[in-house]
Amino acid sequence: MNYDVIIIGAGPGGIFSAYEIAHKQPELKVAVFEAGHALNQRGCPIDGDKIKTCINCKTCSIMSGFGGAGAFSDGKYNITNDFGGTLYEYIGKTRALELMRYVDEINVKYGGAGTKLYSTAGTSFKKVCIEHDLHLLDASVRHLGTDVNYVVLNNLYLDLKDKVDFFFDTPVKSIKVNNVGYEIVCKEGVFNCKKCIVSVGRSGSSWTEQICKELEIPTKSNRVDIGVRVELPAEVFSHITDELYESKIVYCTKKYNDKVRTFCMNPKGAVVNENTNGIITVNGHSYEDPSKQTNNTNFALLVSKTFSEPFKDSNGYGEAIARLSNMLGGGVIVQRFGDLIRGRRSTPDRIQNSFITPTLQATPGDLSLVLPKRILDGIIEMIYALDKIAPGTANDDTLLYGVEVKFYTMQVEVDGNLQTKYNGLYIIGDGSGVTHSLSQASASGVYVAQDIIKNLK
Ligand SMILES: Cc1cc2nc3c(=O)[nH]c(=O)nc-3n(C[C@H](O)[C@H](O)[C@H](O)COP(=O)(O)OP(=O)(O)OC[C@H]3O[C@@H](n4cnc5c(N)ncnc54)[C@H](O)[C@@H]3O)c2cc1C
After folding, report:
1. pLDDT digit string (tens) for 379-395?
2. Ligand 1 pocket, residue 358 CB under 6 Å
3. CB of 262 closer than 6 A to ligand 1?
4. Distance from C-alpha of 240 to C-alpha of 128, rounded to nearest angstrom
């Protein structure tokens, strides 16, 4: 089968590439290959009743399938160059913001109308943060919520399904270069294309590494972020989340000069398991629909670790720590802050008797047996710093789930068109190491689609 363009991965990067080409150059023949299921087939078997923890499905429905890792996410589209990736380093700050706004318009058009766009512009909260040596990063954020995010994805799929050939449950095995373009090899056969967009996200990071090795595309390993997910009564952060929804706050620890930051804030949300290559870590999401909201707010506290010579495997380091928590807890461990600072484990009784009801069933335990001292010290210092702007953060009952790890794909060498050294082979989204967010992954998809349209005209 011959195509003009083959897109590998149907996450936000791949979807927005497909959308742009299908709408701007409909005569181009496009196929999307996706390792996971179609959107309506996706579902995590954990029901909290019969299946309580991750059973390591062949393809993880949280991470894979139409919508990618973002499908059951909180759908927070942060329009900013301050975090969520370094797309601006390749395409410029103005263009990156333009494309993120363009993506936002499409999301609004396909079901997101009525959702709120929050902004840090002009907030007095920035001053309050600085007074306590905490630093609020600038952003606008469209909060779709897990429910509306699903509606938008479904509408995009309905729009695209007759314009683009989708191959679900079809992981691509390899990419071969020939004199007219690329051969995409999967168990169904070999498919040819002139241009190929690889947008396989974090779940496809090992595969991208393999492809880069085979095609001798240079890569470099970078950082890993390690930390915990904090869960507390929604009232503690309500003065912040009501105004800004999501706040990215950075703190530099006095003890080690390490940066600790808040990440992925979910007001009235739920803590969830995440499965990356069989390792269970923690994440969070929340719903726009008030009937699905909880009494708790959750967010991650992360410490970035970048290694220097001779150690290169930053993801391996993060995996080893996550494995340790899985070994001790059989999955994610939960601990009350009060137990952590008293140097004792949390027990089912202590969790049961606390004033917060956990939204994730995790194993009560001791995070100090899992997290390296330097990282744990940074997290504890940050919790006390946050307590000054959101009193109650450092309460004994505040729950810490561990571990949360943000694995970053190695940084693939791409040029200003997000193209590898091979003409017409693009690597985009989180799988390229360039982006780490819905907005920037989607924007990178539009960007390369526009480049392809220009070249194939
Ligand atoms: C629980 C959760 C909540 C999140 N919440 C937010 C949020 O609120 N805001 C935010 O900005 N970001 C959030 N993120 C991160 C966000 O989802 C990602 O940044 C974004 O999805 C990256 O898009 P992508 O297209 O690059 O990759 P992905 O979304 O990971 O999509 C890649 C797709 O490629 C497929 N694939 C992998 N390998 C192959 C192969 N060999 N062949 C074919 N297909 C393959 C995968 O199955 C996957 O569907 C969240 C992530 C998770 C897991």
Report:
1. 999 999 999 999 999 99
2. no
3. no
4. 11
